[in-house]
């Protein structure tokens, strides 16, 4: 039996996390809720692409979008429990990068 | 200062691991050395693409290619120490996928 047959979930997880910017978006949010503008200024990514990635992560239930009815309206992105669950994986990648990448 | 400025290595690590098939190739090799044909039959990927990914991982120092001078010649792929270092990250992704993906 193939690995992919054994591990369709692992395959899906790799595709989800591995998509360009997705890991770094989650990494940012592990630090706490962020406004769209904060994330945009912290990543060398267009607003359009960041918005697309955030929508994908919302659809996957990894990120939640919270609207605060203030003036002006404040919108924040935060990790759900599913998103927080990625902490060990992201930490593992970060630790590895510190040891092995120059 | 941006996250990417703070974490160029994390960004590079995400790009490396996130590339399609790369994570699953490393996952397979965490189980032990594999011949090319074993990996090819275990992943729904063309031989050409698998070969390309393995060459990239060799170049990054994550995978080593060992040639055994038998008849016929046997070629095996194995993780280097740098590759083994990804175990925690891959385990983290696998655990998360078991809990959160259906």
Automatic annotation (TrEMBL), chains A, B:
Keyword Transcription annotated: yes
Family annotation (Gene3D superfamilies): Winged helix-like DNA-binding domain superfamily/Winged helix DNA-binding domain
PROSITE patterns: HTH_HXLR (PS51118)
Key words, A-Z: DNA-binding, Transcription, Transcription regulation
One MF term in the entry's GO annotations: DNA binding
Domain HTH hxlR-type: 7-102
CDD domains given in the database record: HTH_ARSR
Protein name, as recorded: Transcriptional regulator
């Amino acid at each position: 039996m193939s690995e992919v047959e054994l591990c369709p979930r692992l395959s899906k997880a790799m595709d989800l996390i591995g998509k360009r910017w997705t890991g770094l978006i989650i990494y940012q949010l592990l630090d706490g809720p962020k406004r769209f503008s904060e994330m945009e200024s912290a990543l060398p990514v267009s607003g359009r692409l960041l918005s697309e990635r955030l929508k994908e992560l919302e659809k996957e239930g990894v990120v939640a979008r919270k609207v605060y009815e203030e003036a002006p309206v404040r919108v924040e992105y935060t990790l759900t429990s599913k998103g927080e669950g990625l902490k060990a994986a992201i930490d593992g990648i970060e630790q590895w990068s510190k040891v092995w990448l120059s």
